Structure formats: structure tokens, C-alpha cells
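Please review this pair:
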Amino acid sequence: MTTDLGFVRKDFIASKPAPGRTGGPILWLQRNLFATPTDALYTIIGMLFLLWAVPPIYNFIIGHAVGPTGTVLECRDEGAGACWAYIYARFNFFIYGFYPIDQYWRPNLVFALLAVLIVSLLTPAAPFKRTTALLFFLVFPVVSFYLLHGGVFGLRTVPTGDWGGLMVTLIISLVGIICSFPIGVLLALGRQSKLPIIKTLCVMFIELWRAVPLISVLFMASIMLPLFMPAGTTVDKLLRALVGVTLFTSAYVAETVRGGLQALPRGQYEAAAALGLGYWKRMYFIILPQALKHVIPGLVNNFIALFKDTSLVSIVGIFDLLGTVQAASADIDWASPTQAVTGYIFAAFMFWIFCFAMSRYSLWMERRLDTGHKR
């Protein structure tokens, strides 16, 4: 049965005020800092700690600091903060070490080429990606070595003993990262091989390097290795450190990649085999892309650890960034109560910039590749 009865309201209902506290800073504070009595207690303790710690840190770094245009006499005043004038005066030494001043254009050119190639490689929308990769991995190392070392095309020879500062830190970390990654992937595949000889060799290599600290590897490469070599045979100290760092890092990269390989469902291996592809094509096109995507955080963690561990080479007489800071702290021309502390703050800040940049980029890349289950 149908009906034509209906109802039409003839008067408007008075408007009501909007619900309170649906947004704004007060609600954010209630939800994130004072949601429960325990949260409120932790928040108060944290705020008290910040009130205790931040003012003296601020006064030392900024408030009472001596600016870049200051003098050493101002840095020696009682109550003076960080001596940024000392950093400004020794900045070139921190970046280039003992590299000749009139040849600074050579590492500057290497830095510029490195920046252009890395930005192009790490930007997904950049064109000519394959050409850039070939230039970065094959051409750039050779050009950089001859630019820095010289001895060709009329360039003055600068031995690696004169290299130092941030330049050496970047060289060790970049060579370690670039070379250890393919070695680590091959070791991870070898550890999963069904051939007992290959598997045993890979396991022995990985466990050997993981069982010793990096500082022992550097001592072996720098001090012990020349003792076992024929008389008159010398290997460059920086090259020995590069080889030691690369082999050490490759063992950890191998274990990280192995975790990604084991995380893949068995069906992926079987599906790849069902396509009739050979072993290397299965690994290259199907297995490794998925495995590496799973272990991006672990790989970046290895690379960040490597970048920070480069400071250990200063123990074997290589002047990386930390080594130059330590050497410059003995400069009596800038002797002051805050000289060394300022240098270490500068070194820590430089390390933080690079490590934070790697961390942020990995997070961005992880979100970009994680298309199957976005956060």
C-alpha cells in the first residue's frame, strides 16, 4: 500500500556551536603530552631536563661564542664559549688536510663532479640514468684518482700522505660503500649456494671478518701486513685502509642481504624458476629487487656505521676529518680553553649532516618503493 503523506519543516532549527577542541595546539598537547598522568609526569621531567641542559649549551655554542671574525684573545677570555674563529681559520685544513693550497681546485672539482653525479643518480626523475651510473662507477673513480694524485697531464703529484680532512673521510666512505655492496651481495648469494665449496668459502669469509673489530683490521692492514710482504714491497697506506674497510663492510652487507633473501616467500623462488630463467636472471630480475627492498633500512644502517667508523683510520696515521681536528687542537697559536671542544663539535656536526642525509633519503626511498603496503 502506498501513501502520499509527507512532512516538511516550516521553521529552521537554531544553529549550534561547533564542537570544541577538534584541533589546535591545546588538543595536540592533551593527546601527545598529557594524555595520562604518567605521560604528564614524563613530560614534566623532560621539560625540566631541557630547562637544565639547553641554556648552557646555547650559551656555549651561540650566546657566549666567539664568531668567525673574532680573535684568539677573545677565545681566551674567561667565560668565552665556542671559538668559531678557530674553525674559520683552520677550515681549509679540516677539509683538505695537508693538500697544497694552490691545488685546492683539484679536490673542489672532484667534489663538484661527485655532487652532480650523486644528485643525478639519486633523483628518480633524472634522465640518462644508465649513462650516469656508468660515469659514476667506472669513469669517476679513475678521473678522481688522477685529479687528486696528479702525475699526468702536467698535474703536480700529491702523495696520499698529504690528503686529509673531510676529503679522506668521503673517499674512504664512498669507496667502502660502493665496493662493499656488490661484494656483499655476491657473498650473500654464495652463502645460500647449494655448492658446498662456494658456500663454505663464503661462510668462512663472512664469519672471519665479523669476528674481529674494524680497528684490528686497520692495524693488520697498516702495520702487520707489510711485515709479511717481500722486502722492498710497499703498498700505499690509504689503499690498505680502503681494502680493509671494504672487506669488513662487505661481510656485514652480506648478512643484511641474506636476511632479505630469507624473508622472501618460497613461492617467489619457485615462480622465478617456473619462468625458465637462468640462475643469474632469476636473481637479477626477480629475487634481488624484492630482497633489497626489504633490507633498505639495514643496508643504510651499515653504510651510516661505515661512515662513522672512518674516524678509526686516524689511529693508523691517516688524517681524516677527526684526525685533522685532533692535530689542529695542538696548534698553540689558537690555544684556548674551548679550542678542542669547538673542534670536536664541528666534527660531530659534519658527521651528523651526512648521516642524517643518508637516513632521510633512505626513508624517502623506502616509502617510494614500498608500493605494496604503504604506511
Q: What stands out?
A: The mean pLDDT is 88. DSSP finds 16 helices and no strands in the chain. The radius of gyration is 29 Å. Residues 339-369 form the longest helix (31 residues).
